[in-house]
Amino acid sequence: MDGVLIDSEPLWQQAQIETMAKLGITITVEQCIAKTMGKRIDAIASIWCREFSINADVKQLENAILDRICQLIQSQGDMLPGVTEILQFLLQNQLKIGLATSSSIRVVDAVLSKLQIKSYFSVIRSADLEPYGKPHPSVYLSTAQQLGVSPADCLVIEDSLTGLIAAKAASMTTYIVNHNCCADKFSFSDNQFDDLHQVLAFLTQS
């Protein structure tokens, strides 16, 4: 979801940086990308508590970051190019669409409300509901089960290494959509694209 449907990765970084600053701790965008991108909120909060030996309730840090990211999504969140077009293409071709995300239910609701695209999805599954977050494949397997399809028949669109690992562990065909899509770390994906317009063009020709 983040980085595929909405340009929220910079907002996640901002939410973490601002929340940590209130604790007197300075973190960078680069640290956020390296340590927390694509991870579940409980993992994000635990990483920072462990990294800086924060003597605070992890749940409080989770909620503080969630409060800020939801505010930022509502005020600054923008739909990424090609989202509506590819969702319409999939529906027109009678394909089931599921949303499998590391984001919490609160963030999912904020994003879908902001973008007004909830009606496109047959299944919406947050890793909050799973025993493990990405890179564990649980959220993808649960989504496929709810859709009533085999993992082998699923196509996943991901933007992060964490998500790619999860989707491939679920034995799903996985396309990376990322401006840095040709990076070596994404080489085991099934296809790489700069944006959803390229994905749509590829699917249309297939």
UniProtKB/TrEMBL annotation:
Pfam families: Hydrolase
Chain segments annotated as coiled-coil in the UniProt record: none
SUPFAM superfamilies, sorted: HAD-like
InterPro entries: HAD-like_sf (IPR036412), HAD-SF_hydro_IA (IPR006439), HAD_sf (IPR023214), PGP-like_dom2 (IPR023198)
NCBIfam families: HAD-SF-IA-v3 (TIGR01509), PRK10826.1 (NF008087)
Full protein name: Hexitol phosphatase HxpB
Originating species: Vibrio viridaestus
Lineage of the organism: Bacteria, Pseudomonadati, Pseudomonadota, Gammaproteobacteria, Vibrionales
Gene (UniProt): hxpB
